[in-house]
Amino acid sequence: MQSVVETLSGLERRVELSVAMAQIEQAVQAELKRVSRTAKVAGFRPGKVPVSMLERTHGPGIRYDVINQQVSDKLQETIAAAQLRIAGTPKLEPKADSASDETMTFLATFEVYPVVEVPDISALEVSRIVTSVGDTEFQRTVDILRKQRANYVARDGRAAVDQDKVTLDFLGKIDGVPFEGGQADDFSFVLGEGRMLPEFEEAARGMKAGDVKVFPVHFPEDYAGKDVAGKKAEFTSTVKEVAEPVLPEFDAEFAKTLGEPDGNIDKLAADIRGNIDRESKARTAARTKTSVMDALAQAASFEVPKALVDSEVQDRIAAARESLKERGFPNADKMPIPEEEFVAEAERRVKLGLLVSELIAKEQLQAKPEQVRARIEEFAASYEQPAQVVSYYLTDRARRAEVEGIVLEDNVVQFVLGKAKVTEQEVPFEDIMGNR
């Protein structure tokens, strides 16, 4: 008799599974006989060990495996017959008060994938992000490159301003007592880059070599140093040197520092313009994709399996731990990370993943080989030997799969942009590039 699938709530289902004891024992005896052919027991030749002896030594383990296998087979038959898509791993447990000499009964509880309905794409409102790239943006990029390679020249009597490099000694105290990490000699930083706390930077502005200043600093509640987080300290700083940035000229020598061995500034300029175009295109496309995906996620109204959300949460926590390790945090593997911080984003990612998969299947938006190759070639264009990069990606299955995933998302974005209500949004180049 076919097992009946019971709906508990939402996507949760339960099914009762019964297996005959006679069938279990038949399978156990068959397995014992198979094992007896090769079992090695002291005092017996191979193949001559009595089955009754193996029953005592191997029987419990074999019986456990047989029961698991038969219950699993029964569950798979039920799932196939009901045409269900299981999300996560079913929970199996013996049914209470079901003891019988003839059968063993279990309850399997699991979630199923939802029926995903693609929303009306024409009703979605999305933004297509654009930015202007011209001579002004080129010059700003060149200026940034020059600032990154600035030479700092000490100036006597110079009052420190933003972009100057300040070298100083400092001592911090909390309640009159020095604290760990609150003291340094000949410490240098570029003023205005945000490396130091705002009160520390503000105190350094206007100071000259030889100046001494005492000032308060309030550590934020979320400061990385837990011993001082949320506390008020008093710092004494003594400026040793104020150095003015001297930017290199945009000339042959500058070109050589950027990888042009012949110092060809025309070629350097062309490379910079090409990089700006590629980067701005990639970043505007990323923001447009975010707008499209947000619109899709908001329009999706189906329930998502908790098992998939839980799995996504664990992936996010694992990624957070890896990030902490890379940043040098001690005991990152054991540091408590609250799961609830990731639940909302995990639900969004799962819902969006299911919806995008359904949209790809429904509208036949699968990645085509020529699209994958074109995307790889576009990516490889920023390397010195593009052909080698293209070959590497095309011959490496995992790398190629990554690009296929990107192309799939691109196809979804372009499909939505072609049908939704699209508003063009101009974003300043500096915002796109993160320069302010």
How would you describe this structure to a colleague?
This protein has three domains: 5-112, Trigger factor ribosome-binding domain (Alpha-Beta Plaits); 121-132 and 254-433, Trigger factor, C-terminal domain (Trigger factor, domain 2), CATH 1.10.3120; 150-246, Chitinase A, domain 3 (Roll). It is 47% helix and 22% strand. It is built from twelve helices and eleven strands. The strands form three sheets. Strands 6, 7, 8, 9 and 10 form a five-stranded antiparallel β-sheet that branches. Strands 1-2-4-3 form a four-stranded antiparallel β-sheet, sandwiched between helices. Strand 3 (86-94) and strand 4 form a beta hairpin. It is elongated, with a radius of gyration of 33 Å.
Question: Topology of this protein?
Answer:
Elements: E1 5-9, E2 12-20, H1 21-36, H2 51-82, E3 86-94, E4 103-112, E5 125-130, H3 135-148, E6 151-154, E7 165-174, E8 177-190, H4 198-204, E9 212-218, E10 232-246, H5 252-257, H6 265-299, H7 306-326, H8 340-363, H9 369-380, H10 386-395, H11 397-419, E11 421-426, H12 429-433
Parallel strand pairs: 5-11
Antiparallel strand pairs: 1-2, 2-4, 3-4, 6-10, 7-8, 7-10, 9-10
